Structure formats: structure tokens, C-alpha cells
Amino acid sequence: MTTPDEHGTEAVVAQLREWLRANLPSDWRAAVEAGDTAALGAITSDPARTSAWYETLGAAGWATPGWPTEHGGRGATADEAGAVADELARWSAGRPDADFVGLALAGATILAWGTEEQRQRYLPPLARGRERWCQLFSEPGAGSDLASLATRAEAHPDGSWVVNGQKVWSSYAHESRFGLLMARSDASLPKHRGITYFLLDMSTPGVQARPLRQMTGDAEFNEVFLDDVVVPDSARLGGVNEGWRVAITTLMSERSGLSGRPAVGPGVTDALVARARTTGAWDSPVLRDRILGLLVEERTLQMATLRAFAPAMTRRARRDRSASWCTRS
Fold it and tell me: Which residues have C-beta within 8 Å of that of residue 22, sequence separation ≥ 6?
């Protein structure tokens, strides 16, 4: 028996499939349908082609289906947005993992706390893949306890802020245009209250991102040094000394985003199974067990994440409905 929500999700996926038939380049579609990984790899590793595709995807609202329509989304529910992500993954047509911070974290946080000017400035290029974002939260001495951060933001008479400090484990910071920055703005207040949140332009003088090379040779993570970085007050997100409230939105978006990401979601697994049956690979016990193992791992991760964070998210939703602590004038 199907529920109304399932009908809604099916309708959204049907719309997406129709749109993909009209807009996904023919050679891209052919490579996916034929299982031609070499051809598909050549397409998806071409920056010019992927940039053009992300622009098309974002302009249609399919890169950010859960956002409001007035801000470049399609007003989809969480289930519908998840189904869209699955379908895009099936066609290797979604945004890359490197864009997760921007799409899932920056987008949700700016929508919740940003001024209309900030939304108009940051959301459209984010949705269309023009600007990458990173997260500047963790510090060498404040990893598990983010509220103990030592990076300082000092207010100047002209209204700007001067930031000094160091961040670490910032994914793709060396490739990012903007960063989500937490800094201590009042050391005299309790640690959760003396923090202000900024949308940092990573090209600002004094910002230096140094890649941390891993054993694999990749350099996804970075340490970021902030030396007398001047940040305009227009880049502040939320109230002065209220950055922890803003950060909660970011952190909750990260948790819910990770639990719903289609890295090996049902759509991808179904596609793997279908392809394996077509090619005869399903007859191999090794490959069959591996595909089923991926499905089990993904479901286990989703359930563990949801179980761990559902109580906190429920409490947050109740506060949002009944309390005034997160209300801004």
C-alpha cells in the first residue's frame, strides 16, 4: 500500500526523469546506460562539462530541491529531496562530495539566519556550483569541544572585525571561495555565548590554507591560518555573540545531511543490482555479496546516525515551535 507521501515522491522523481531526458547530454546518458565507466569518467572529470552541467542543474532547482522556490529550490520535502539525490546519483549527475559543505551546511544555515541581502548574494552561486564552501570550526585545541575555540574576532570602531587564529581539518579549504567561520568575540562571557559566526571570504588578505597531505597522496584536509583578517560586519551571520545558536543549525544540518546522503543509497544499489544482472556479474557470489554488503553498511550507518541524533533534533524542533531563544528581530 502506498502513502500520500510516496505518491508525492514518485511524482517528483517522474518530473526529474523527464527533465533529465531533456537536459542530460546524450553521451553522458549513453555512457551510464552502457555501463561505460571509461567514457563516463572522461565526462565527469572534465571541469568545463561539469561546470556547465552544475549550472543547468542549479538553475532548474534540482541541485537544491529542498530549498524554497524563491531561493532557487523546488520546495521539496526531505523524502522528496532524498529521492532526487538518489535519482541524480543513478545517472552520476549529482554534485560532488566536495560541495557538501556548501549545499547542506552553508545553504541551510544562510536560509535560517541570513538577511535577505545575504541570501541573494550567497545562495544562487552556491546552488549553481560557482562557489565552493568549507567549514572553519575545528581548532588544534578545540576539536571535540567546539565551544572552547580560541580564534578571536575583535570589533573595530569602523564596524569591521579583525580575526586571528588557526583552524584545522577543513576539507577543501584550499579550493573554497567562502568558509563558515566561528570565532570568539567576547572572552568575558561563558564559552557558548561569546562566539560570533561569519561567512568568510577565503581570498581575504591574511587567510592562508595549507593542505595536509594524506598517506594516499591526496590533500583533502587543510589547516587554515588567520592573521589580522579584516571581515566586514555584513559578513556576520546572526547576532553578535550568538554564533553558537547559528552553529547549532550548521551542526544539525550536517548530521541530518550525512544520514540522508545517497553515497550508496537505495537508488544506487538498485542500479548496481540491475547492471550486475544485465552483465551476468550477479552470478558471481563475490560480487553479489559485495553489493549486498554495501546496502547493509549504508542502512546500518543511516540507522545509527538517526538513532544518535534524533533525540537532539526532536528537542530542537520543539524549542523552535514554542520558545523564543532562536527568534531574531
Answer: none
> What pLDDT digit, counting tens, does each position of 30-57 carry?
999 999 999 999 999 999 999 999 999 9
Q: Report residues of the chain scoring pLDDT below 70.
A: 1-7, 143-144, 216, 254-282, 285-329
**Sign of the dihedral through C-alpha 297, 85, 132, 160:** negative
Catalytic residues: 254
pTM greater than 0.85 (yes/no): no
**Domain range holding 276?**
263-322
**Backbone Cα Rg of the chain:** 21
Assigned domain for 151 exists: yes
Residue 254 three-state SS: helix
Domain total in the chain: 3
Sign of CA dihedral 314, 192, 148, 202: positive
Are 146 and 229 found together in one domain? yes
Last residue of a domain, one of 71, 95, 119: 95
